[in-house]
Please model this.
Amino acid sequence: MSLRRSLAATAIFATAIFACLRGSNGQADFQFEFSETSFTVSVGGITLLAHSPENPIAFVGRGTSSFAESLGSFLVDDAIEEKVALDAFEVEGVGETVEVALFRAGEPGGVRVQMSLSSGERDAGGMVALRFPLVATLATLGGDVNRLWVRWPADPSEKIFGGGEQFTYLNLRGHRFPTWTREGGIGRDDSFLANAANLTNPGSAGDYHTTYWPQASFLSTRKYYFVSDFHGYQVPDFSASGYHEIYYHATEATLLFLAGDTATPLRDLVRDFCTWTNRPFQLPDWIFNGAILGVQGGTDRMLEIYEQCRANGVSISAIWIQDWSGKITTTLGTRVFWNWRWNQTWYPDLDVVIQDLLPDVRITGYINPYLNTEGDIFQEAAGLGHLVVERNGEPYVQEHGGFAAGTVDLFRPEARRWYKDLMKANMMDLGLAGWMADFGEYLPVDAFTSHEGGDPYEAHNLLPLYWAITNREAVEEEGKMEEILFWMRSGSPGSSLHQQMAWAGDQNVNWEEADGMPSTVTAALSLGLSGMGRTHFDVGGYTTFVIVLERSKELLLRSAEYAAFTSVMRTHEGNMPASNHQVYTDDDTMEQFARLVDVYVALAPYAKSLLAENSETGFPIQRPLFLEYEGDEASYGVQYQYLYGRDLLVAPVLQPEVVSRGLTDE
Ligand SMILES: *[C@@H]1O[C@H](CO)[C@@H](O)[C@H](O)[C@H]1NC(C)=O
Ligand SMILES: *[C@@H]1O[C@H](CO)[C@@H](O)[C@H](O)[C@H]1NC(C)=O
Model:
């Protein structure tokens, strides 16, 4: 920390020099400069914070909000009643930290925000602590307020990337991003489908920002990485040309800035952030034996499709049966029975079949953090007090579309232990080699959990993290991290420390950029820049509606072609298998699919080297072009191509009836 001043007492100056000498390596971490009416805070010549009466750093105010949940979509009603600029400040101390009081001009005794600037190491719970040259902590004192806004400077040409898993925008500039884990929604545009979804269930159409994994961390082309150390509802806003702003449903905030200087490569910033939120993961080798084939319908059907694929030359690494625990019939069609135990009537002899197929092929299953109220496991959990509850202490039961379910209180260590034991006994002991660890986004804000902070808003965004922890620990405690693969869609900051593999959730079985196959490229790239660089997607997409939205053969094969250049190639039949073209629909599809799986398998040595790099540094496997070619201005606008490692540029065909594409388009 160094200090240059144009005003204030020499005594303060002397203290500042002292603080500077105590810096980590004798280098100045941040520089604080101030005059009577303004101040700036910079690192390596990059201005990170700035304040003047016209452009204050902080605002406080009051608001009311409601978060109405329905099938994992949230109607957020957020009314701001008051927003007051704290346009005056006073430097109160310059030592190891710089203390600044922010208040309203002429009202030094009124509501104020105490801002503390320092440099220091932060631990994300992983292997590596990261030193942030600038940590700004703001706390509101006095006043009847419940909202805080923090602003920092932006350049009109600056670009912002990351934000967790984003499906619409890779460059987030020009938009605001409510940070609230939820369903991605059906359609993210004004399509017929999105409108129909909203009519059926208000809010179930997605929006440009709706995502399973929102995260308030960003890379700026002004050469810094920003992390918000807060888990409740917040809205980073990049829509202004001269500043960025975060709106907090809180009166305290901590902003972490990672920066070197103006010559630091963006790559280094991303790598440092990713290493911080990464754990060395050794994924099972078997994933490279072929595709993970998604099928359902009982033992006979599973084996029949598997044999058919094999007969047509398709290499299969695993069969994925999401309905291993059985099916239920609801008014909305058939759904998996959320009672996590092998259904022996539906899958007779599954235990024997699993052993018979080894060592060539594995069987994987499905689980989520919810329990169907009709099941005995729900009853057991309720009796043990392992479920999220209502105010009256009764299990909080949510409607899931034709049936109801409770949520395991994963914040509760005893509940986690119990759920891990269930996963070990019912899944791993049966011989399942992995599973989709689905959901995690539905926790309502009036639910009571054992989350320490007790704040339901924080608990909502953190449940995905605890769901990831539960899965990792279950597998790790059995010593099976190199044998089992679980994949997840929901995420919170820190989830990348626990998830072996993410997948992009539910896409429409179409070509739309908003919510079809192309959106998975944006998702992989944004999530990769946010610390989770191991991702894949449902080959062929998921969301299907009879006649209106059905999967074509062309879409299926094009998406398989693109999936060959990702870490995991896994098919999904979709929510209406009979309406969709499937890899096993005809011989021609199987033969073409077989060829694409062969490409994936042939790339295994390369793919493994990328996983190894990712394991060590967290650096994303699929990366945007600018990350390797940051001097190339044109690369920043490329959203639908990616580098698969350093050496392969992948430009998937994402449109129907097209047999080639140029590399100069986006
Ligand atoms: C669906 O409803 C949400 C919430 O009211 C709204 O924000 C969104 O624009 C709607 N989408 C469509 C396609 O009508
Ligand atoms: C097993 O699955 C079948 C078919 O999906 C279902 O009818 C039956 O109720 C399930 N049995 C149990 C014990 O869950």
